[in-house]
């Protein structure tokens, strides 16, 4: 792993595959480290000839923490959003998009295929809207536009998302919570293997356990609000991928994303929830490959 200064902060990143290939920049979601991108999925992109870059978002993993900003109050953040108010936030999705664009600059990558999952999809969208010169194509996976009229998460998914974390020194409880979270939001047609979820949770917690970063990232999402007007300006080829059975970000959010971004293609996947199950890796790769080919034709 390597660390680099990008957009004025320290970003932890990994690069896979030939530097001569077109770059796929993978952006992960709320509170999730870059390790949540499954290595076999990354390897499938590399096998297609792409260079793949993953990184820890600010306040996650080994990238810079915004400790001086203090924790976000999750209850107050959600209450403000429900009341139509903008919650206080240390930064916004625009700032996180600038991190991603800055990372490309720091790595001397002129343009990339930008791919994001969940909050990472929101960040990817804002990279395409705010930094179009850096974007070959955009693939938004299980994400949203911030449209307040969209249906909310299912109660069980929202509960697991917003429940206070176990004490930092209770490692067993932290692992149990992480596994349960993935099971609640996972794909009903492709149930995750519990042993694998446990192993991944242990590895991630040993790498970094920083729940306060989650609260600031959540505030960033809520403070960014409805982003549809910005998304209407996107000119790059766009693919929207969403699970029909997503309990956390309902499929209507993917449909809204595709409807707002000019020329976007929508692929709805039956049985997919809010995760990246191995049986669907080929579909995720094909989604990116499809808009990448459109970008080459348009160039």
Care to describe what's here?
- The model has no long low-confidence stretch (mean pLDDT 96).
- Helix 6 packs across helix 7 (194-207).
- The chain is globular, with a radius of gyration of 18 Å.
- The chain has an eight-stranded mixed beta sheet, sandwiched between helices.
- Strand 7, helix 10 and strand 8 form a beta-alpha-beta unit.
- It has a single domain (2-151, 211-298), classed as Rossmann fold (3-Layer(aba) Sandwich).
- With 299 residues, the chain is of the alpha/beta class.
- 42% of the residues lie in helices and 16% in strands.
Sketch the topology as an H/E string, one letter per element. Answer: EEEHEHHEHEHHHHHEHEH
The CATH class is Alpha Beta
Number of beta strands: 8
At the fold tier of CATH, the topology name is Rossmann fold
Number of domains: 1
**Main beta-sheet strand count, sense and barrel state:** 8 strands, mixed
- Rg (C-alpha, Å): 18 Å
Quaternary: single chain
CATH homologous superfamily placement: Alpha/Beta hydrolase fold, catalytic domain
The class by helix and strand makeup works out as: alpha/beta
**Mean pLDDT over all positions:** 96
- How far apart lie the N and C ends? 33 Å
- Beta-strand level of the residues, as a percent range? 15-25%
Low-pLDDT runs = none
Proportion of helical residues: 40-55%
Main sheet strand line-up: 1-2-4-3-5-6-7-8
